[in-house]
Amino acid sequence: MSLTADDRLLIHEVIALHGHLCDASAYERFDEVFTPDLEVDVSDLGLRPVPAGDPSRSRLDAYIAVARNRGPGSTLAMLVTNIIVREDGDGARAWSKGLTVNQDGAVAGFTYEDQLVRTGQGWRIRRRKVSPRREPGRGLEPLVLPG
To answer: What is the mean pLDDT of residues 3-22?
Structure first.
């Protein structure tokens, strides 16, 4: 599959929408960003994965429940930037940088690595890995751009 410029723009928008929904505590709209079988790997943050839980609920429903239980916390803004999109079989992969700004002015940096699929509702994230940025010069290997 070849990604068009429209595909790339829509993928950028889906990734950005996540931050807007988090900032608004609009977790019930996460289906606009993620697939029902979503997998989130937060092990690099020292957290356990969201359990599949009740078989009558999707993993996305479990993820939404975790977000609601955590509440808005002290984060004023969740920002995403430096998005890179690559074809990946029938889907796409994307890497982006994230920042959170807390009420006390503290800033945290992280990296998202996403696997996306095209659904009947548009592009959605099926798998997300979240890695913290804790040391300068340590992160993902530089990506080779097509040329």
So the answer is: 96
Q: Report pLDDT for 147.
A: 44
Which pLDDT does position 70 carry in this prediction?
A: 75
In a domain, 61, yes or no: yes
The model's confidence at residue 72, banded by pLDDT at 50, 70 and 90, is: confident
Q: What are phi and psi of 37, to 5 degrees?
A: -95, 25
Rounded CA gap, 96 and 115, in Å?
A: 12
For the chain, the domain total comes to 1
The CATH number that applies at residue 67 is 3.10.450.50
Collect all residues with Cβ–Cβ distance below 8 Å to 32 and sequence separation of at least 6: 14, 17, 21, 121
CA separation for the pair 104, 102 (Å, rounded): 5
Inter-residue contact 104 to 74 (CB < 8 Å): yes
Each residue's pLDDT tens digit, 33-45: 999 999 988 888 7
Nearest partner of 34 among 133, 125, 146, 128, judged by Cα: 125
Query: Which pTM value belongs to this model?
Result: 0.85
How much of the chain is in helix, strand and coil states, percent to nearest 5?
25, 40, 35
